[in-house]
């Protein structure tokens, strides 16, 4: 497969692993006190486990799995609001595949569908718009979520709906942005992270500049990375080089896709339709300033929160309590490994997730459960 | 009034003269139903056991009369959207699925039943095409459809057409395949590339705006299984890797036999187009459904003969040994990645759902 196989070349991967081993030795990382690198993006977490990279890297290096799975960090209250919306008469709720399994306090969208709500999986917000065109008698709501990667497409669907005067299409907007939670993590005194592997797809939209504060204010290296094994390992080596040299800068391993300035057209689309909310709640991380997006006043007609009076639109910003014993928050902060959670693999499994990190295959608990539990399984 | 669905002996296809649709009358037990059966099903499934139109089919015990032979009996319901897809349709699926469930148990299929639930308003031309496809698949598998049932339900009560087939077959004396029989050291074989059916259906639903040349692998596996049992009589077990894919089947075997199964990623055959669809959607080809792919567990000393037998068969040209049975991890399946890493290959969770980014 062109553009894929060359980044999965075992010889190249072996060479990178050797280089990583030498760098970890030089920095002095050990099993007891490893060099810790957070991969921010859930896609990277997935790739690490899918290719077994965590078992190939030296013991003195530890991957900490960051908050970059948009499905996982969605708080229960927002899922509850969405389920409530889906159950309203006349509503046809559309969303991406893995969003239907996220548990709220009263079940998931999949459960709502089984109970009679019309919930449909779409592959893009434009598919949801097409459903609105085809079913003028129904209120088609798109449960929009995701980081800057998915936001431009959602914005484009709203603008298209406006151009066509489609009155039965709205967004339940749960878009979030990457830099604010990173700042929140870096300000946490419990956090001990030596460097970051930056998200590839998000950076394709926002560029590399928004990470500059990580290097300049917090003195941690950031390397924006692609998603193939050789991409990831090269990015890890670049982070380690910086640490070894006592530097902290933003570098771009994924230059074949990511430009420093990002994608100006996509950024303009987003800016036209969305604006930051003052605060937005993240599952496990609590409320973070300016981390969530809402629709601008001009597009109020396409805002499900305003149109149907749900969520923040109903003046409601109550945090829904997480389940007892669930330690998703500590895992997302990198303060705890998934198997250390008391619910991991017992009360909380991919078949019946308690916490959000077990829901999506990009969630670190699900990834651990699916791919990593080899040692436990062998015992 | 007769439904009039004529056969076209030259083309071998059923060719109704005009577009008509199924009405509630076709399920009412009266003249319309009699005509539907007489004009559509009887000529297509033509065989003496069916033609007598009794309430049951009476079969020659044939191979069952041999001492030590056993009767194998299976049933399966078929629902698929779309009903017709590249490489097959619900009819072919309904025949192959049941034939394959018999075949992987080492049985020679004897006869099938076919019950159809049809939604009011269903296109008769489409139904005739699906029935013709059942006839062709049954002919290829060398099995007769000897009894059946037709029900019509009101519009909205079914998604077009549901088919249930049951099958009986004969297991020869001495053949005893069982998932619990897998032993450390055994080889794990597949007869061809994985995930063709699952990826074809995902693309055929038209939600993805993808175009591929992919076709479902829907096909009867009884010939392939007989070739395997001749070449490798010590074969421990076989399964057809339908919903849940090869990952689900191997997890079942690992659990039943309390062994570990270790796969080697480079040896797992997957077509580039299937890999492409999986890369785009974040799916695993080992979790995708197949309809003509069997997994067999064969003792190491017979693995070479088994592989050669499969490769000599038209449905096994792409056969590979993809891994082996080990002592540990008990009850689990692991995959050694092409980079030398190792990961668990777990059961999929329900239907594969595409990831958000």
TrEMBL record, chain A:
It holds the Pfam family HypD. GO terms for molecular function: 4 iron, 4 sulfur cluster binding; carbon monoxide binding; iron ion binding. The keyword Iron applies. Keywords: Iron, Metal-binding. Transmembrane segments: none annotated. Gene3D superfamilies: 6.10.20.100, HypD, alpha/beta domain 2. It comes from the Bacteria. Belongs to the HypD family. Coiled coil: none annotated. This is Hydrogenase maturation factor. One of its GO terms (biological process) is protein maturation. The keyword Transmembrane does not apply. Signal peptide: none annotated.
From TrEMBL, chain B:
Residues 67-171 form the PurM-like N-terminal domain. Residues 183-335 form the PurM-like C-terminal domain. InterPro entries: HypE (IPR011854), PurM-like_C_dom (IPR010918), PurM-like_C_sf (IPR036676), PurM-like_N (IPR016188), PurM-like_N_sf (IPR036921). GO terms for biological process: protein maturation. Gene3D superfamilies: PurM-like C-terminal domain, PurM-like, N-terminal domain. Coiled coil: none annotated. It holds the Pfam family AIRS_C. It comes from the Bacteria. Signal peptide: none annotated. Belongs to the HypE family. This is Hydrogenase expression/formation protein HypE.
């Amino acid at each position: 497969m062109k553009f894929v196989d060359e980044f999965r070349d075992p010889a190249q991967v072996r060479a990178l692993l050797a280089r990583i081993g030498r760098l970890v030795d030089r920095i002095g990382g050990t099993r007891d006190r490893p060099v810790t690198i957070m991969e921010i993006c859930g896609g990277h977490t997935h790739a690490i486990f899918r290719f077994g990279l965590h078992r190939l890297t030296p013991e003195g290096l530890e991957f900490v799995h960051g908050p970059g799975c948009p499905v996982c960090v969605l708080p229960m209250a927002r899922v509850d609001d969405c389920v409530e919306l889906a159950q309203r008469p006349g509503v046809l709720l559309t969303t991406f595949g893995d969003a239907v399994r996220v548990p709220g306090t009263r079940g998931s969208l999949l459960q709502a569908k089984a109970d009679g709500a019309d919930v449909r999986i779409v592959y893009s917000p434009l598919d949801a718009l097409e459903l609105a065109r085809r079913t003028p008698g129904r209120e088609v709501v798109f449960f929009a979520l995701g980081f800057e990667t998915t936001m431009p497409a959602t914005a484009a669907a709203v603008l298209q709906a406006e151009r066509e005067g489609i009155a039965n299409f709205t967004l339940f907007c749960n878009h979030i942005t990457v830099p604010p939670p990173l700042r929140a993590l870096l300000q946490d005194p419990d956090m001990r992270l030596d460097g970051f592997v930056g998200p590839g797809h998000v950076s394709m939209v926002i560029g590399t500049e928004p990470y500059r504060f990580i290097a300049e204010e917090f003195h941690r290296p950031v390397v924006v990375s692609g998603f193939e094994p050789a991409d990831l390992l090269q990015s890890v080596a670049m982070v380690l080089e910086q640490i070894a040299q006592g530097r902290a800068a933003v570098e771009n391993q994924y230059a074949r896709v990511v430009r420093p300035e990002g994608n100006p057209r996509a950024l303009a689309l987003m800016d036209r339709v969305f604006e930051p909310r003052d605060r937005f709640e993240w599952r496990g991380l609590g409320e973070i300033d300016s981390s969530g997006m809402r629709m601008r006043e001009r597009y109020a007609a396409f805002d499900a929160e305003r149109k149907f009076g749900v969520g923040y639109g109903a003046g409601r910003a109550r945090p829904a309590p997480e389940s007892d014993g669930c330690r998703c928050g500590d895992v997302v902060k990198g303060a705890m490994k998934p198997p250390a959670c008391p619910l991991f693999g017992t009360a909380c499994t991919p078949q019946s997730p308690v916490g959000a990190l077990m829901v999506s295959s990009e969630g670190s608990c699900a990834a651990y459960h699916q791919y990593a539990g080899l040692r436990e399984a062998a015992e | 009034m007769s439904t009039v669905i004529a056969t076209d002996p030259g083309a071998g296809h059923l060719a109704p003269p005009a577009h008509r649709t199924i009405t509630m009358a076709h399920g009412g037990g009266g003249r319309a139903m009699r005509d539907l059966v007489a004009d559509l099903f009887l000529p297509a499934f033509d065989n003496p056991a069916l033609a007598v139109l009794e309430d049951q089919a009476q079969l020659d015990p044939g191979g069952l009369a041999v001492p030590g032979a056993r009767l194998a009996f299976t049933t399966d319901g078929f629902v698929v959207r779309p009903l017709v897809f590249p490489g097959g349709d619900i009819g072919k699926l309904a025949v192959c699925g049941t034939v394959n469930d018999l075949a992987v148990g080492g049985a020679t299929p004897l006869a099938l039943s076919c019950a159809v639930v049809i939604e009011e308003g269903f296109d008769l031309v489409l139904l005739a095409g699906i029935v013709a496809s059942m006839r062709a698949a049954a002919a290829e598998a060398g099995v007769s459809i000897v009894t059946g049932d037709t029900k019509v339900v009101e519009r909205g009560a079914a998604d077009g057409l549901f088919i249930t087939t049951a099958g009986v077959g004969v297991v020869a004396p001495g053949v005893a395949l069982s998932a619990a029989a897998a032993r450390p050291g055994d080889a794990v074989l597949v007869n061809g590339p994985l995930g063709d059916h699952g990826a074809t259906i995902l693309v055929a639903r038209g939600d993805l705006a993808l175009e591929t040349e992919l076709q479902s692998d829907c096909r009867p596996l009884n010939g392939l299984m007989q070739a395997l049992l001749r070449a490798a009589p010590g074969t421990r077990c076989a399964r057809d890797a339908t919903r849940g894919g090869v990952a689900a089947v191997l997890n079942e075997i690992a659990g039943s036999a309390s062994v570990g199964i270790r796969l080697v990623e480079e040896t797992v055959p997957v077509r580039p187009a299937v890999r492409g669809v999986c890369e785009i959607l974040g799916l695993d080809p080992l979790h995708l459904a197949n309809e003509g792919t069997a997994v067999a567990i064969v003792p190491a000393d017979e693995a070479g003969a088994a592989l050669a037998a499969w490769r000599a068969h038209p449905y096994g040209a792409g056969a590979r040994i993809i891994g082996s049975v080990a002592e540990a991890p008990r009850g689990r399946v692991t995959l050694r990645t092409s980079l030398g890493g190792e990961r668990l290959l777990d059961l999929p969770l329900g239907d594969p759902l595409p990831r958000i980014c």
